[in-house]
Design goal:
heterodimer, A: alpha/beta, Rossmann fold, 12 strands, 33% helix, B: alpha/beta, 8-stranded mixed β-sheet, 4-stranded antiparallel β-sheet, 13 helices, globular
Chain lengths: 336, 331
């Protein structure tokens, strides 16, 4: 279902990925329902490409990132990384792939061990993978810190001595240590101030150019996602509702949720008159969601019972522009 | 937007607020001044630690005690100086004539009381209402802030509501007594964009209907552009630029404002291009110099006098005020 006709072999191809968590209840803590955080997601990432993943809190974007890096055992579907399906691998079998896929986390205050020096934090991946002698490792750490724009004296300091932006740089240095091919960036700039955010975004783009990295860039901020991504996937309640090149999704959104999301972003220009689609209500619970169109209750569009029961197809409506083809959401939109 | 149209409700003059810390006294707000006009929205924008929230807390007299104190300056509200007024009188103003919308709706609400009780608390504190009337009024207010079936929600607890609904309850509490001024401190920062759009719309509608003034504190320039009439840009405890929103966005004069506007990624911008940045980071409060505080990040050489002497804030165009640093101000 992913874009099979892509010129190159994708570095990552995810097909019909599902990650369900049991919801336990009753006296004996039996699984009474399933929280379908990721429920049938398919996409691919080409070498050197950035795929942006946008959506509101609770839509499953972080779970998707963690499932791809196999911090979770997926419930179903496949994760092909350079041809190998990671979904079925055991802990030991996964180890070589851990070097290739790394993560950068949102909160640089919580994702660094406060009792370790920066040198120890950045060196740890080498130790785990038994690489180099002590001297070599220290040299590599120095090089990594230099590449992310930190002074060499930073190595002997502790995380609390750094600002949020610098801590995020430490997190990036650690993620780059093993020369990964794919970085999963989970809201890497959300906790940072705007002037620092742009520094970190520039660094990520520069590293991508230099090293040919691929990114899965997860963020709720569509302006940030739009800036850094080649293609953007918009997620809603465990599914991707629209996937297209960044320019295309912004200038020609098809799914009503994508339209609402783009229109909700405040534009930093007081002369701009927003043409806003205000969505009613909140994101519904992902516990036992309907099989059909999940956006129906908030769309304000009339859905027939079958629209709510039949899982909509993920369809390529124009080259490289994929959308979840709910007849009620899409047809009405194209007719207008 | 001429000054003459503006009927001033709140005047802040040379406000200095300091905290006692282990490193000695630090001034989080150092000589801040602005006017809030009746029925208008003033935005205060700046990065974390620039003193936006401390300014709000100073106006509300909610500074953490005993560390925080107002060292100098005036906060004139209808002729009363809130900076020096006795705490009993302040209690009758706070929540009644000036109220506040907080950032984090979960921590701003008491988790063990029903929503209705929390609204009634404000109502009965400031009005002579019997409990049944207050309860009925709570239901009306919840309806007014767009909560569906308010007569059911009023009996619920905060944890039963979503983030957006909780923020509506916080707004309901702030509006309960029909305040003249509402201070909204990052009211939508904890919310998703689609919910943020709902809440900003609600604040706008309520302001129009009730004619109150709003001080909106945020780090998001998009939110400022959309909601504010006037804007103060704060940096390291000072206001570096103050003008109408249109003017600040169209014609920013201070290097910090320019840097801030240039560093945000825009939806219509060219993708994957290098963003402009402001080098370095916000200085620590204890290291601040009296003069231009943006100097280390401005990339421009400052003289000793510009760093060490207090700079005046100057009106360089009608109603457009800028901290007058010869290096950082565009003439």
């Amino acid at each position: 279902m992913h874009e099979a006709m892509n010129q190159e072999q994708p570095i990552l191809a995810v097909d019909d990925l599902r990650m369900h968590f049991p919801v336990k209840g009753g006296v004996i803590r039996r699984a009474v329902a399933a929280c379908k955080a990721v429920d049938g997601v398919s996409f691919s990432i080409a070498p050197g490409e950035t795929l942006g993943l946008a959506g509101e809190s609770g839509c499953g974007k972080s779970t998707l990132g963690k499932t791809i890096s196999r911090l979770y055992q997926p419930t179903g579907g496949s994760i092909h990384f350079q041809g190998t399906n990671l979904a079925g691998l055991s802990r030991g079998e996964l180890k070589p792939f851990r070097r290739e896929i790394q993560m950068i986390f949102q909160d640089p205050y919580e994702s660094l061990n406060p009792r370790q020096t920066v040198a120890n934090i950045v060196e740890e991946p080498f130790i785990i993978h038994k690489m180099g002698t002590r001297e070599e490792r220290r040299k590599w750490v120095g090089e990594l810190l230099d590449q992310v724009g930190l002074p060499s004296v930073a190595a002997q300091r502790y995380p609390f001595e750094f600002s949020g932006g610098q801590r995020q740089r430490i997190g990036i240095a650690r993620a780059l240590a093993l020369k990964p091919k794919l970085l999963i960036c989970d809201e890497p700039v959300s906790a940072l101030d705007v002037s620092i955010q742009s520094q970190v975004l520039n660094l990520l783009m520069e590293l991508q150019r230099d090293r040919g990295l691929s990114y899965l860039f997860i963020s709720h901020d569509l302006a940030v996602v739009k800036h850094i991504s080649d293609r953007i996937a918009v997620m809603y309640l465990g599914r991707i509702v629209e996937l297209a090149p960044a320019e295309e999704i912004y200038s020609n959104p098809v799914h009503p949720y994508t339209k609402a999301l783009i229109s909700a972003i405040p534009v930093p220009d007081p002369t701009h008159v927003p043409d806003r689609v205000i969505l009613e209500g909140d994101v519904p619970s992902p516990i036992d969601p309907p099989a059909g169109c999940r956006f129906a209750p908030r769309s304000g569009l009339h859905h027939n019972p079958e629209n709510l029961e039949i899982t909509p197809q993920f369809k390529e409506i124009s080259p490289r522009h994929w959308v979840e083809d709910c007849p009620a959401c899409i047809q009405v939109e194209t007719a207008v | 937007m001429a000054e003459s149209e503006c009927e001033v409700l709140l005047q802040v003059r040379d406000l200095v607020t300091a905290f006692d810390t282990d490193d000695g006294q630090v001034k989080a707000v150092d000589g801040v001044g602005f006017d809030v006009c009746k029925g208008r929205t003033l935005g205060i924008v700046g990065e974390s630690g620039c003193g936006k929230s401390v300014t709000a807390m100073s106006i509300m007299r909610l500074l953490p005690q005993p560390m925080g104190k107002i060292l100098a300056g005036e906060v004139l509200f209808n002729g009363m100086n809130l900076a020096t007024i006795e705490s009993g009188k302040m209690r009758r103003i706070r929540g009644n004539r000036i109220s506040m919308i907080f950032q984090e709706p979960m921590t701003a609400l008491n988790p063990v009381h029903r929503i209705g009780k929390q609204i009634c608390e404000v109502l009965t504190e400031h009005n002579d209402l019997d409990p049944d009337d207050a309860w009925q009024k709570s239901i009306d207010i919840l309806g007014q802030v767009g909560i569906p079936s308010p007569e059911i929600r009023v009996t619920e607890y905060p944890h039963q509501l979503s983030g957006g609904m909780r923020q509506r309850v916080v707004i309901a509490i702030a509006l309960a007594c029909g305040p003249e001024l509402v201070i909204a401190d990052e009211p939508t920062t904890a919310l998703d964009v689609t919910i943020q759009a709902q809440i900003l719309q609600l604040i706008n509608d309520l302001q129009r209907d009730l004619g109150m003034s709003v001080i909106l504190i945020t780090h998001d320039l998009g939110v400022i552009a959309e909601t504010c009439d006037e804007v103060c840009v704060m940096y390291a405890g000072r206001i570096v630029e103050r003008a109408s929103a249109k003017e600040v966005f169209a014609n920013p004069r201070h290097a910090y404002t320019q840097g801030l506007l240039n560093s945000i990624p825009r939806l219509g911008g060219a993708p994957k291009t290098e963003l402009n940045t402001i080098e370095g980071m916000v200085p620590a409060l204890k290291d601040l110099k009296p003069g231009c505080r943006f100097a280390p990040r401005s990339g421009r050489k400052h003289t000793e006098a510009e760093l060490m002497d207090r700079l005046p804030i100057k009106e360089i165009a009608p109603d457009h005020w800028v901290e007058d640093c010869p290096q950082c101000t565009k003439p």
